[in-house]
Amino acid sequence: MTGRLLKNAGQFLLFIWAAGSLTFLLVRSIPGDPVLAILRQPRSEDVRRLQRTLQLEGPLGTQYIRFLGRLAVLDLGNSLIDDRPVLRTILAYLPNTLLLAMAALAFTVPLSLLLGFQSAFGKSRIWEVLGIGFSAVGLAVPVFLIGLFFVLVFAVGLKLFPVSGSGGAAFLVLPALTLGMTLGATLTRMVRAALLAESQRPYVLLARAKGLSPTQVFRRHVFRNALLPVITLVGLQAGALFSGAIIVESLFSWPGTGTLLVTAVRQRDYPMVQGTVLLMAALYLMANTLVDLAYPLLDPRIRHDRNR
Questions:
Q1: Could you tell me if 92 and 63 lie in one domain?
Q2: Distances 38 to 266, 267, 270 between C-alpha atoms, Å
Q3: Which alpha helices (H) appear in 76-168, and where do they start and end?
Q4: 82-100 pLDDT, tens digit each
Q5: Is residue 170 part of a domain?
Q6: Residue 110 within any structural domain of the chain
Q7: 290 and 162, same structural domain?
Q8: What pLDDT, in 10s, does the model give residues 171-194?
Q9: Can you tell me the distance from the alpha carbon of 155 to that of 148, in angstroms, rounded to the nearest whole number?
């Protein structure tokens, strides 16, 4: 157990270093100079003074070593625009992004389970058509077009929900639906395929031969085993939720880390961009770790293999 924890910790640190290094190089390849963007009428001495203040002077290698040193002590630096600590600013925006992601999952998972089950075992063909149609739309249509459609129909046309902004549960509905569509489409297909595959396993046929009712077979065997690939997909798609939040939050003016990241890129705020990307990478790793820890609870065979 200790060895596994050390391995996970090592992988986490390696991933954070790789994500931070890549972001460090990418943000500095953005055209333009943040110092010139801050100074309205820059003079050479003002530029040099501000570069020293913002720690942007010196070769790129020196800046990179300085960046790694701060990262090692969890110091993400201060914003180049308002000089506020990056970590404090991100933590102020993070709850809104987590709320949006949880709302998207709350909409996506039950709907996908329902459509996947009904399209696999439903007696009416209309459920199969709905499941396949939902999957096709969610996978084929870009998320920003889905968001625009929801805005035009439910906000502008029917006036059921606000167009953008935040302030209550009504503001959360359209962004959550938009963010959850892509995940829901993939998840519906996975649920249907996993249920159909498990229902044909030999142990299911044996359970039916022993006299168990279809409901008992489904609840005790088929559904539980089919959850393993579904949970794996949810964990892997957690990163897609946070990356998709960048588009969705910008589209609906939702005050989360996605909006913060887009604003930081436009302003060439290097520390804010680096900190936001690192946070998203850390959340992605945490989601996958939780999925890994959930496996033994669902399948005792995995628990037995790890204890050997």
A1: no
A2: 12, 9, 13
A3: 86-121, 125-140, 143-150
A4: 888 999 999 999 999 999 9
A5: yes
A6: yes
A7: yes
A8: 999 999 998 888 888 888 888 888
A9: 10
